[in-house]
Write a structure and sequence with these properties.
The protein has 15 helices and 17 strands. By secondary structure, it is of the alpha/beta class. It folds into 2 domains: 1-61, no CATH class; 71-246 and 290-493, Alkaline Phosphatase, subunit A. The strands form 5 sheets. Strands 1, 4, 5, 6, 7, 8, 11, 12 and 15 form a 9-stranded mixed β-sheet that branches. The protein has a two-stranded antiparallel ribbon with strand order 2-3. Strands 9-10 form a two-stranded antiparallel sheet. The longest helix has 25 residues, at 358-382.
Length: 495
């Protein structure tokens, strides 16, 4: 895969292979021509001169799949929510509550240092009722009543598994395909592969639930939405709660928009002059970022303004949606960003790391997220957007079926468990109202249809119309991809 083409930043869409994704249905030849004609004749001429039509056509080889989804909203539940208290019902654990985990079930698998020294590993049954919902009678915990109402729109994967057993490596693995920081994030890969559908907003936006003063939360690091070694124009842009959601976006005091434009034009001319001398494509990315920031000065305030949202929307998402930075408010903002055709919208909600006092902590977390998550799916469906918007809910791993520490009648904790956990997906080409994969009666091992993190990533790319084996970037002599040298598309969950 070639590196980003050496075009002037405001010409990137004219010469980049990403432009042509939206035009694929009209054929490769027409696709190249229409992509170039979207810009001015001068832009097209320069793009053709610099890149060459043949090189442009070569770069669409990974876009050989009919796309089902145009955009992604990833509701990442950081900390590892327990599948056993949410969507993977295991009555056997309730029947054998307090008994030691059989060696035949554990099979010598590794544990974290937090529970490996326990004298026994007492199995802990969920303290919540499960009931069947939807046409297929899918089990859902009473903690998630709103999610239970939309199960016919969801595809549950109960057989997820990962390589990492601790938080940062596991989240990094999910977001970048590697446990070691430095690789491009999944949103950056999508941005790099497909480009923007909106010239006035970033292709990849990150929203993080505002921290609670006393909440137990694993930290989140910028490398989770980093562009890694691909051009920096593809890094995630973090929005924060408040009137100024992007740092340093507004003009300084006493600097007018006209002065800002004049300064930017002069700066771009200098950068283009430097580009002609050193041929560093990162200069083009830098120019693109400055131009995007200039356009965002007007586009961002409009998109984050919820003053025109009717009361019915706040009733749908919950009253927390009126609080900037809450998970509910971020879900509503995600819908607004999706309406503006932002390609990849990443939400992070922390606080799911329940090593102790799980019943109390899990109840609090579910209350914060359940209604808004279901509301987002419902809202998109009502607007006719769910069919081409892929919504994902899940964390970096699951929780153990045994209690970490003391097990009592009212409280227990669960350690990290990478062997099996549950996620759900909706819209964007996945089969609704289904459950894929199965774990054993103890909820410890997968017994049917395992889905590795790389399989999940490959499937996401497939739904977006990209071949995960073809979308690569050459760095330090090697061609890298999101799924490294692994991953298979889970075809059985595709609609």
């Amino acid at each position: 895969m070639m590196n980003e083409l050496n075009c002037n930043s405001h010409l990137t869409s004219a010469c980049s292979r990403r432009t042509f994704f939206s035009k694929m249905s009209i054929g490769i030849g027409s696709l190249a021509l229409s992509g170039l004609l979207n810009e001015t004749k001068a832009d097209a001429k320069r793009a053709m001169t610099q890149a060459g039509a043949e090189e442009i056509l070569k770069q669409v080889k990974y876009l050989n799949i009919a796309p089902k989804a145009k955009r992604v909203i990833f509701l990442f539940q950081s900390g590892g929510p327990s599948q056993l208290e949410s969507f993977d019902h295991k009555p056997l654990l309730q029947q054998r509550n307090g008994e030691p985990l059989p060696d035949s079930v554990r099979q010598g698998q590794r544990l974290t240092g937090m529970s490996s020294n326990q004298a026994i590993l007492p199995m802990a049954g969920a303290q919540y009722k499960f009931s069947r919902h939807g046409q297929n009678g899918m089990y859902v915990s009473e903690l998630f009543p709103h999610t239970a109402k939309i199960v016919d729109d969801l595809s549950f994967i109960r057989s997820m598994h990962t390589d990492a057993i601790n938080h940062d490596p596991a989240i990094t693995f999910f977001q970048t395909g590697s446990q070691i920081a430095g690789r491009p994030s999944i949103g950056s890969w999508v941005s790099y592969g497909l480009g923007s559908m909106n010239k006035n907003l970033p292709e990849f936006i990150v929203l993080i639930t505002k921290k609670e003063p006393k909440g137990t939360q694993q930290p989140l690091y910028n490398h989770l939405w980093s562009n890694g070694f691909i051009p920096s124009i593809h890094q995630g842009v973090k929005f924060i709660a408040g009137k100024n959601p992007v740092y340093y976006l507004n003009n300084p005091d006493d600097v007018s928009g006209k002065a800002r434009r004049k300064m930017l034009d002069t700066w771009v001319a200098l950068q283009e002059s430097q580009m002609a001398k050193v041929l560093d494509p990162e200069i083009n990315s830098r120019i693109s970022q400055y131009e995007m920031a200039y356009r965002m000065q007007t586009s961002v305030p409009d998109v984050v303004d919820v003053s025109d949202e009717p009361d019915a929307m706040f009733d749908l998402y919950g009253e927390d949606a009126r609080t900037p930075g809450s998970f509910a408010a971020n879900c509503m903002l995600a819908r607004k960003l999706a309406e503006q055709d932002v390609r990849f919208i990443q939400l992070y909600h922390q606080g799911w790391d329940h090593h102790g006092d799980l019943p109390k902590q899990m109840t609090r977390q579910a209350k914060q997220t359940d209604q808004a998550s279901a509301a987002l799916v419902t809202d998109l469906k009502q607007r006719g957007m769910l069919e081409d918007t892929l919504v994902i809910w899940g964390g970096e791993f699951g929780r153990t079926n045994y209690s970490q520490g003391t097990l009592t009648k009212t409280s227990y904790g669960r350690d990290h468990h990478p062997r099996c956990f549950t996620m759900w997906m909706a819209g964007g080409g996945v089969k609704p109202g289904t459950v894929y994969g199965e774990t054993d009666p103890f909820g410890y091992n997968i017994v049917k249809d395992p889905v590795h993190v790389h399989d999940f990533q490959a499937t996401l790319m497939h739904l977006m119309g990209m071949n995960h084996e073809k979308l690569t970037y050459k760095f330090q002599g090697r061609r890298f991809r999101l799924t490294d040298v692994h991953g298979h598309v889970v075809k059985d969950i595709l609609a």
